[in-house]
Each structure stands twice: as structure tokens, then as C-alpha cells.
Write a sequence for this structure.
């Protein structure tokens, strides 16, 4: 069970938002300073989310490269604004080890297969869930897909890994949505859990359900002794 710290980027700062709301900033620090704090804990992987890219639909390759340099050899999984195969290739060329893609793979029935065929195990499909439906466009819209149908599409395309976020729990420190992770861990696809993960008890519960890893945002800030003030 891997513990993966989250670094959410907005402009030139690392931030934490509550439930993905850009108006509810719980924490803010310059990117380089925050990356240095994270790197000092020697995590197995760092989860990078370019919130600006996700909102605007355009990958910021320069920011990805900046984070890769700051990571000092620690691998990164990167998301935010990767809406095409060219953008995915650009993120990998900038140094990302794997890319998380949501909106683009839910665009049509064939998109998932195209990304899976091209990227293989460097692809992580984002399953961002709100009110039982998969959210897209930086969590600002619904795809209309239910979780079971989304899982079926991933299985058909032979997707290797899912990044599953319970949006209602993100940035709340209320604990993970264990019912959701019980649902998505039934198949053969590896699952990375995110949203509300607070402590070792939450990690143990997710491991017990079969999750491969968990991303921790506010909970990781608490481990670092940082406040949640913006």
C-alpha cells in the first residue's frame, strides 16, 4: 500500500482546495518551497495536479518540467489539462512517469481504447465521482456515466490503473468513501484512492479493500505540521 502525497498547482503555488472549489483555498505555498517539503519525506511517487490546466483544458508542460526537476528523481504522476494524446506525450516528454487522464477518455466510446493502446501502463484513468456519476472538465461537469458503466469501459480497454476520487470527500478530512472503493476494487484493475484520506487507519481500511495506493492531500499537510490556512 503506497502513500502518495498530492501537490495541487494553481498559478505558481501549491494549494489545497475544498471539494475542488477554486474559491475555497485551504492552503497556499510557492511550488518550489512545497515540493522541497514533499521531497524531504522521500515518497515513492508524487501526485501532481495542475488545477489551472484542468480548468482551462491545456497542459502546462513548463510547470510539469519544473516539478520534475524539483522532485530530484522521485517519479511523478501528472494530471490536469491532458485532453489529447499529443498532450499526454508532452507530459511524458517533460519527465512525468505516468499521466492521469479523465475528460479526454470519456469523450466517446473509442477514446478510452485509443489512449490505452498508445500509453499502456503509463496511462492512469481518472474516475472522479460525484453523486454517483463521473465528473469531467476539472470536476465542473458531469459525463453522465455511472460508476459501473465507467468500470466496464475501462475493463474492455484493458486499462491498467484507475485513480478514483470521491469528490465530496476531497479536502474535507472526513475519511474516504469506503463504499465507493469497495465497488471499484471488485475487478482486476489497480486502484489508487483519493479524497478525504486522513491517517493510517484510513490507509489500512483502503488496503483491506484492495486499493494499491492512496493519495493524501490535507492529511499529508498535517503530517508535515503545516496549517490549512490560505
Amino acid at each position: 500500500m503506497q502513500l502518495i502525497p498530492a501537490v495541487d498547482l494553481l498559478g505558481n503555488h501549491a494549494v489545497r482546495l475544498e471539494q475542488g472549489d477554486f474559491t475555497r483555498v485551504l492552503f497556499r505555498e510557492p511550488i518550489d518551497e512545497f515540493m522541497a517539503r514533499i521531497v524531504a519525506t522521500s515518497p515513492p511517487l508524487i501526485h501532481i495536479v495542475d488545477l489551472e490546466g484542468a480548468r482551462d483544458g491545456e497542459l502546462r508542460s513548463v510547470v510539469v518540467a519544473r516539478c520534475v526537476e524539483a522532485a530530484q528523481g522521485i517519479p511523478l504522476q501528472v494530471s490536469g489539462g491532458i485532453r489529447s494524446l499529443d498532450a499526454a506525450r508532452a507530459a511524458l516528454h517533460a519527465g512525468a512517469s505516468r499521466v492521469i487522464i479523465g475528460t479526454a477518455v470519456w469523450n466517446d466510446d473509442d477514446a478510452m481504447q485509443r489512449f490505452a493502446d498508445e500509453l499502456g501502463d503509463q496511462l492512469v484513468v481518472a474516475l472522479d465521482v460525484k453523486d454517483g456519476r463521473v465528473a469531467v472538465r476539472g470536476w465542473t461537469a458531469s459525463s453522465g456515466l455511472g460508476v459501473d458503466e465507467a468500470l466496464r469501459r475501462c475493463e474492455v480497454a484493458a486499462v491498467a490503473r484507475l485513480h478514483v476520487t470521491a469528490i465530496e470527500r476531497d479536502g474535507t478530512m472526513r475519511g474516504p468513501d469506503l463504499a465507493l472503493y469497495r465497488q471499484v476494487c471488485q475487478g482486476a484493475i489497480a486502484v489508487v484512492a483519493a479524497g478525504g484520506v486522513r491517517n493510517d487507519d484510513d490507509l489500512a481500511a483502503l488496503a483491506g479493500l484492495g486499493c494499491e495506493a492512496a493519495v493524501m492531500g490535507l492529511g499529508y499537510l498535517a503530517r508535515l505540521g503545516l496549517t490549512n490556512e490560505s
